[in-house]
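Readers of this paper often ask what the protein records in our data store actually look like. Such a record has a labelled line for the sequence and another for the backbone structure tokens. Nothing more is needed to write down the fold, since each code stands for a local backbone conformation. The remainder of this section carries one protein's record, kept here as part of the documentation.
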Amino acid sequence: MRPFRIDVPQADLNDLHRRIDRTRWPDEIPGVGWDRGVPLGYLRELAEYWRDSYDWRAAEARLNAYPQFVTDIDGVNVHFLHVRSPEAGATPLILTHGWPGTVAEFLDVIGPLTDPVAHGGDSADAFHLVIPSIPGYAFSGPTGQVGWDTGRVAGAWKELMSRLGYDRYAVQGGDWGMPISLRLGLADPEHVVGVHLNMCVTFPPPDPAAMAGLGEADLARLEFTARFMQDGTGWQRIQSTRPQTLSYALTDSPVGQLAWIVEKYKEWTDSAKVPEDAVSRDHILTAVSIYWLTATAGSSAQLYYESSHMDADFVRTWAGPWPLTMPVGVASFPRDAVRPVRRFAEQILPTLGQWTEYDRGGHFPALEQPQLLVDDIRRFARSLAR
């Protein structure tokens, strides 16, 4: 394992600014708002802010304030933050982001999770944190290999935790972090003591009788998810089928990369009119900048292709049940991209023990509602066997 420090050359930042200046802007149909994608006026203003006001060096320094490392696992370079708690008895916890997330997504929860006493909490709720970049993403860089599906990532995480000397640990994730965390539980049942998720995907069973007795709230969740599957999965279909073709546009145009990602912060968060209603624009631009500066738009999309074309186990296990031996906890946030139904989740996750439905927050709770997420993880960890 080798220490790692983010140090983007100034020439790369200058190039980014020049490319923003040279953007060739499209037209748009007046008055359609966000219905057909990111509005032109909004994106131009946000790009100008990225060019003139956003401070990458401040974001870089904030990331570099935490210990970072890289290590070779299964032929790829894996980047991760490793932040140990001052509490000797802290529970090791590996946090896994998704798309379009990065390790920077967790910056607001690192302090409360590792040092609860300093944040008004109990020392018994402390965690040693491992926060890796998924292979193909950001500072874990392009893999240069086929076959990096969710199961292979879970295998890499198992190896990473072993190298760090953790023989008892919990796992947490949302988005891609959800299946990766579940598969890590399957891959390492001797050491994983619990799986906590902030996203859970459920679908009605084939038998219509399974719908009997569902309340209005659960029926509304199913209707929301059905609309999302019909209207909100364009990005998924493209990244699952033609990631290489997409990569040319996103790797060449920073404004294209910006639009591709900022749309998700609008659609998947507890925002009203603009994404910044839920997540600060600096947080959003840090994520976009990381994808841009590491040129990993295409390599990150490969996980979609691998997991939909080559990962038969992954496709099958959506229907469950997941044969896990350790407890599972789910924190459900109402403005996530999909809204799960507990009855169906219990069929998919037989060891589901903790289920919490919140009245605010969305797909990125570590950014939108960090305290709610921290409290939910703490509560789940207290229920685990010591």
Notes: The two ends are 29 Å apart (CA to CA). Residues 216-231 form the longest helix (16 residues). The CA atoms of residues 29 and 36 lie 9 Å apart.
